[in-house]
Design brief:
Layout lengths: L11 H26 L8 E14 L4 E5 L2 H19 L8 E4 L5 E5 L4 E2 L2 H19 L6 E4 L14 E2 L25 H13 L5 E4 L37 E4 L3 H4 L4 E6 L3 H11 L2 H8 L5 E2 L2 E2 L6 H7 L25 E2 L24 H9 L4 H10 L21 H7 L3 E2 L1 E4 L10 E4 L8 H21 L7 H11 L4 H4 L1 E5 L35 H4 L13 E2 L2 E2 L5 E5 H6 L7 H11 L5 H19 L5 H10 L12 H16 L23
Helix pairs in contact: 1-11, 3-12, 7-13, 9-10, 12-17, 12-18
The chain binds adenosine-5'-diphosphate (ADP) and magnesium ion (5 copies).
One magnesium ion binds next to loops.
């Protein structure tokens, strides 16, 4: 979530005189970091997850599940609990999970207290670590409250009472929303500032239109009767009537509708900058695939949507582009027409690897020419210069009056101010000043799952995939326009079983003549130096740069240049994950090959197999995605009128059901494996 210091944030108009200064010094700060860290070598694998939680409050009498707006108190209690645990157990404070504020005042984010290492033991501790976090939060709740990991709360912004305590949306000074009170937003100063500044910079409220799911009784055309079209409190109130709210859609008008969704993120450290760039690129095409596979958000503002994912909602909810930047008016005050919101999919591959052919970067990417010149003049290669110069077409969204003139050597605030508000599917993270942390890659597209079993399974899967990519030197490149097309497909209802996605057919650096899924090239000898560990670095730079042919070359690779011709095709999710024919092993195929190369105890292997089986079964459709399960629960509820409306009662029963599933008190054999054991079983955590 980036910077979280306190201080006095400037209103948008007051921050305008400083924007250019912050951009300029942000680049100065980046250049200092670059000089310090560009040759940094030998960092080991460290990694961690981020899980976002929602706090609920159940009113059993009224059959209403509300969002409990108690982030501040719960965070404070968790903080003192952590201090307590450490002093009583004389434990290592870093072993106590860390909780952060998230954008909604009903949200928390939890991470491991210190990152996991590359050991198999740590791989096995992920789920326990996640469960422990949930348990710590639960200990702070009252009897009628719950903590759940759901991506979108179905009745956020619906008529009636959806928060505890209740607040009236007609006083929403920072969002001017028709539906949400300001109290829905975290009291942490960063969040209301971001929201107000997105609206002010854009020049209007954000307008998000999610296609409605037409059920048999949904009126056509669908004109939402719950929008207060004739409210006249804030100047933007008429926008809904004047075209911002589209028919046949669920209209959302505030940043919190998107930022208030939860997700699951993974960050891992690379041994050096080039390895980080390779891993980043390889995971770009994986972003939409995992979005579709983890789909978990089919409902918004009391209605069933025709999409299963949050991504476009959050992209539109943070869209601070002016009309000029959106191409609606000729450029006069702004420099660039910008095709995407600052929350969206990656625009550029950045690896210097020869596999990264220029034609893969095939979409229009506006960038700041002066910054680009400054970076290249400093000696930074054109790809990375363009990446940074592209991030820096955005304005800082939160300027703090006491943090403007800074020591550019000791601080990276201005760089991070822009870097951390470019919310893309992947984030390429540079070391902070004065820190032992190396180059990192963050994988950001996944939706949070109902149970920690699933959250651990997908986290471990991505971590292992990143190891397989680096140790086998895999090539996942497809033109980035195809990745963007996949992002759209990934969000469609039922995408995991209904859609096809562009994916690369040949993923090994040199294609063995008779490659079969069981014949994936073994990791280099050099990896066996770390037999019981997942640490892979250094030496693999050689085999994964596309030049070496591993002795299997069949002439298709000459000095790293592959021959022309279609290297990708449309595949189903089952094919992409589980493999297709003899040619394509699937992402699970390469992960399994990697797992087989590790020296693991039987029990550890069983656990890994359980995780991989979940991924496999979600991909082949024998288990439902969370989104499909939630949609079907709603549609088969006795009180559902087949009109797309999710009533308080339906929502109440759904939230109860999700909490019970997580605890293992309710079976869901179409969602989870039959041997799923919920958190009602006390596994002896803190
Ligand atoms: P952000 O919100 O900016 O993505 P967080 O601090 O919330 O960052 O989460 C970062 C994740 O990275 C956490 O899971 C943390 O455990 C993990 N992490 C911390 N240090 C390292 C490191 N050196 N290398 C890789 N991951 C790390
Ligand atoms: Mg993050
Ligand atoms: Mg977060
Ligand atoms: Mg975070
Ligand atoms: Mg952070
Ligand atoms: Mg978030």
């Amino acid at each position: 979530m980036g910077l979280l210091f306190m201080g006095k944030p400037l209103a948008w108009e007051d921050s305008i005189p400083y924007l250019e200064y912050i951009r300029e010094h942000g680049i100065t700060q980046f250049l200092y970091l670059w000089d310090r860290f560009k040759d940094r070598e030998g960092d080991t694998l460290l990694w961690g997850d981020e899980v976002e939680y929602m706090l609920l409050s159940f009113d059993a009498e009224a059959k209403n599940a509300k969002l409990s707006l108690h982030q501040t108190e719960i965070l404070a209690n968790l903080q003192s609990l952590a201090t307590d645990i450490c002093s009583h157990t004389r434990g290592d404070p870093t072993s106590v999970p860390t909780f952060h504020p998230e954008s909604g005042s009903y949200m928390l984010e939890g991470t491991p207290g210190s990152p996991y290492t590359g050991s198999v033991l740590d791989l096995l501790s992920v789920e326990r670590n996640m469960r422990n976090r949930r348990k710590l939060v639960r200990a702070e709740l009252m009897a009628h409250e719950a903590v759940v990991t759901i991506t979108s709360f179905p009745r956020l912004g619906s008529p009636g009472v959806f928060t505890d305590p209740y607040y009236d949306p007609s006083h929403a000074q920072s969002s001017h929303s028709l539906f949400l009170p300001d109290e829905i937003t975290s009291a942490h100063v960063r969040f209301p500032t971001l929201m107000a500044n997105i609206r002010r910079r854009r020049g209007s409220k954000v307008a998000i239109n999610v296609p409605i799911f037409f059920d048999v009784n949904t009126p056509r055309p669908f004109v939402d009767p719950t929008i207060p079209y004739d409210r006249r409190i804030f100047p933007e109130d008429p926008e809904a009537m004047n075209g911002a709210a589209l028919p046949d859609h669920i209209y959302l008008d505030a940043t919190e509708f998107g930022m208030g969704c939860s997700c699951l993120q993974i960050t891992f450290q690379a041994c050096n900058v080039d390895e980080a760039r390779r891993a980043y690129d390889a995971l770009v095409p994986v972003g939409p695939i995992m979005l579709a596979l983890t789909a978990a958000s089919p409902a918004y503002r009391g209605y069933l949507a025709d999409v299963d994912c949050r991504w476009s909602v959050i992209a539109a909810s943070t869209d601070d582009r002016t009309e000029e930047e959106r191409g609606l008016k000729p450029l006069r005050h702004n420099k660039h027409v910008i095709p995407k919101s600052r929350y969206d999919s990656v625009d550029l591959y950045i690896s210097k690897d020869l596999k990264n052919r220029p034609e893969y970067n095939d979409i229009f990417v506006p960038y700041d020419e002066d910054i680009y010149k400054r970076l290249t003049t400093h000696g930074i290669d054109t790809l990375l210069s363009k990446h940074v110069a592209h991030l820096f077409i955005r304005d800082p969204l939160a300027v703090f009056s006491d943090r403007i003139e800074l020591d550019d050597i000791a601080c990276s605030d201005h760089f991070e101010s822009i870097q951390s508000t470019n919310w893309q599917t992947l984030r390429f993270k540079i070391s902070p000043p004065k820190s032992p942390i190396g180059w990192r890659v963050e994988f950001r597209s996944m939706e949070v799952q109902i149970t920690d079993f699933e959250n651990a399974a997908f986290s471990v899967f991505i971590l292992l995939l990143s190891r397989a990519i680096l140790s086998f030197g895999l090539n996942f490149y497809v033109p980035i326009s195809k990745v963007d097309e996949n992002m759209q497909r990934a969000q469609q209802r039922g995408a995991a079983t209904q859609q096809k996605f562009f994916f690369r057919k040949r993923i090994y650096p040199a294609e063995p003549r008779h490659s079969t899924p069981s014949e994936v090239p073994a990791p280099s000898e050099r990896s066996s130096a770390t037999i019981n560990s997942l640490n892979i670095h250094g030496p693999f730079a050689d085999i994964s740069n596309g030049i070496e042919t591993n002795g299997h070359g069949d002439g298709k690779y000459v000095n790293g240049h592959e021959e022309r011709g279609d290297k990708y095709e449309e595949m189903t999710m089952a094919e992409i994950i589980n493999g297709k024919g003899n040619e394509f092993p699937g992402l699970l195929g390469v992960v399994n090959a990697y797992l087989n190369s590790l020296n693991m105890e039987f029990e550890s292997k069983q656990r890994m197999r359980a995780y991989m089986a979940l991924v496999k079964r979600r991909a082949d459709g024998s288990l439902k995605t969370c989104a499909t399960w939630i949609r079907e629960f709603i549609r088969s509820h006795p009180a559902y009128k087949h009109d797309s409306v999710i009533s308080e009662e339906i929502n109440f029963d759904l939230m109860k059901a999700l909490d019970e599933i997580e605890r293992g008190m309710r079976v869901a054999h179409d969602l989870l494996p039959t041997d799923y054991v919920g958190s009602k079983i006390d596994d002896g955590c803190l």
